[in-house]
Amino acid sequence: MTLEERVAELEERVAYLESELGLAQNTARESLFRQAFGLTGQEARLVMALYDVKGRILSKYQLEDAIQRVAGGTALKIADVYVCRVRKRMGYDAIETVWGLGYKLTPKGVAMVDAIEQPKAIAA
After folding, report:
1. Which of 27, 36, 68, 106 could potentially form a cystine with 116 if both were Cys, beta carbons 3.0 to 4.6 Å apart?
2. Model pTM?
């Protein structure tokens, strides 16, 4: 088996496992966010989670789950780190800190995401 064949086989297996876990549905959307804002996969999932609740507050626990896709045992500080990274890429006023509660996407952040989500909705 050549290296290319092995890579293709492994990619197929990953796609199958992601679909079994219900993760494949967000991969195209995640790619859209990654390309539009220059985000990593974890950063894209964080923005997607904040966008999906449109202005409501998500706690660090909820963001951690979104970042990791599956609830894991990572430190809560990881949510702060990813929020900081996303702010650097999308603008510091795209995500608001709600002290003691968590984070939410600001109207500017929602508008930025709307701008990339709308063409997708129109094409569908």
Report:
1. 36
2. 0.71
